Amino acid sequence: MIPLIGLDPKSAAGLKATKIGREAARTVITERADDGINNFVDYTPLPPYPGNYIATPGGQPFPDTPQADAIRLFGGVGDVKRFRAPPPPNVNSTGYEKFLLQVKEKGARVNSTRTPYETETALYWRESSPM
Question: What's the pTM?
Answer without folding.
Answer: 0.42
